[in-house]
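From the shared-data thread, chain only:
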Amino acid sequence: MNYQSVIVTYNRKDKLIEALNSLLNQKVPPIRIILIDNHSTDGTEKKLKETGLLKHPKIVYIQMPQNYGGSGGFYHGIEEAMKYTDFDFLSLSDDDAIYKSNFFKLISDCQKTHPEIKAFCGTVEYEDGTIQIDHRRRVVESRWYRQEDIPASEYNQNFEVDLLSFVGCVISRDILERIGLPEKDYFIYYDDTEYSLRIRKYSKIINVSDAIIIHKTPKKDPAKQNVINWKNYYEMRNSMLMKEKHSDWKWLKLYFYQYYLKLCIRILFNKVYKGQRRQALYTYYHGFKDALRNKKGRNDLFTP
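Structure, as tokens:
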């Protein structure tokens, strides 16, 4: 498998070094690594110089003039990757994703066995070995694209997925040429979901369950699942934009209003929102309003 890799980074220099080395030390190594630095301010470039990785012949380092978010980062990364003609597949991952050394060997073996498949992904695990199941999902209602995480019980064998994240996915060049670049103006959230729906028009997506990528991120705390922050704006807005783009259901707009009304009622009366009701209503209102207006891009009211 001739492949190159894209990594998008922002202010996680130590994890980035580990992520880069996990690619360079693959049993089937990449042709090159395109590293998109989303205008980091933590000394990422200096760290790369100190470790010698900045001058590594396989690493193409590109510093963005501003933070374009994950969606903008992957847009520019794939755009840069497509300038090269010597690869057959492209992998995508964040700076906190660490590939096990046999990841691409296993993906390559599966691809050789199933040449008709043009997109693959691996198993995303937390550092303690627990599977992070929300990275691989299935569409269970296509009218408004309701989705469910694929349960850990299915990971004892390879399986087909509908929706993947940009953590450890591998896509063929010919698919990329057909579907174009991701939605750069989502900033964060749902750019990978939307891209998956485009991939599925041309190929199945297979999760190679023994190919493991360690996601060095804190485990989700169920007690904090309703804590409101700036990211919820993009979650609301982009989920609506994605559904609007791909669904042809004539009642979709009505569904949006119904969903938003139920959400507001839940915020007002559910005790989990106590102490943050005003912030929740404000954040989701702006996400809902901007989605209806098809307003994309970074909103300076909601930034890191």
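The chain is about 35% helix and 20% strand.
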